[in-house]
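TL;DR need structure tokens for one chain.
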Amino acid sequence: MLFAATLLLGLCGANAVNFTTVYEWDKFDFLWPPEADTSIGQIKQNFTPDNVEFRYMAVYGERLFLSLDTDPGIPTSLVWLPTNGTSTAPPKLAPFPSLDLHKKDICDNIQAAGGLETDTDGRLWVLDDGSDKCPGKLWIFNLLKNDQTERVHQFPDTVVSHFYLGRSLSDLVLDKTTDDLLAYITDARSEQIVVYSRKMDKSWSVKTPSEGRWFSLALSPNREARHELYLRRAGSNELYSVSVSELKNEGGSAAVKFIGQWTGKPYKMLIDGANVLYAASWGQDYLSKWIISQPFREQRFYEVGELGAYWPFTFALDANGNLWMTELNVNGGGNRHKLLKAAVGARSNSFSKFTATKFLDETSEQEITGSSLDSESTPPGETQSPLGVLFNSLWKSRILGKTLPHPQRSISLPFLILLQTFHCLADPADDGKNSNLFPACGNVRFPGQQTFF
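>> reply
TL;DR here they are.
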């Protein structure tokens, strides 16, 4: 216990996520193509910089993709930015993949980009709500092949209404299975969840209870025993979940389970590889989180002064455990935008399957100033062994499994395994109640045989 007390005295207990500012804009501009086409001059003349507002975000490699609010003065609804610009000046917005693919009321073009996702094979998935003349679509671009259009799926009228006022496609998440890649999509004007299979190039709808007009969604890691889709109803602050297994039945129905109530109404949610759900709510100047493996408890992890924006944030995780976020401030006249970045220590679900050894190698020189791996107290009715308590404290303090800038605060992988072994000796009956710390004791394996995270 003396060792434990001495070690705990040196722990850093910070739970906050520390964001740094990457770029700031008082006014946006685009990377315009040459004006060989006379229409470009007219588009530039009609461009209204103050009307640029970000909606959804995705990150792949050294590029960050953003969908924009559709507005008559905005020539495109999908742009990209570099994540590692060499200049301190804020970059111009680059239309993706080109401005030509965004001409209005041409149904072979992108009309209104919304939810965005990237996958491990370098594809960008874009949800397009269409227009009053064009139906909704799902676009898939290959970022590794010069951004070429790999597939365009037009939703059948039986799945997503071709009547413009009868649909409102908002967001999507990707679910990689053993032999397919599925997209789950929300349509806020129908009582269903839309599912798309890349393997079959086919979409279908799954009905939900009549109160379910879903707007925002987030997907739990598919390594979990209970693989679930979390949903927030349009106009409500209530959070629900549905088993992913029920979404694979074409034309079927799915039962939803009530989880809890947010203080706001989240328009954007995502879950990282460490089971932390992040949420941003309409008109609120803070971000919330909840650890989905524990009873519902909303916590604020980022809060600023009054922003006055209806859609103040959008965010996405990259493959390196960084949370990227935009912030919009409309107080004081004009729109002031920021691009922020924070190391949270957990990857996007798309990149969450990796071993402890790989994780340690990749983060050994990274300063972890905050993490999404915060662990709250043990749920009521459950207890932890003394070594389990110590392990939990180490985890909460960002020391376990990472090498901090202070050598005396580093915990190596062999010591992690040693702690796990001692815990199992002290509490062999542990069948997974400390699963947020390490696997059930009956499943202990050496590196190379066990995925720890």
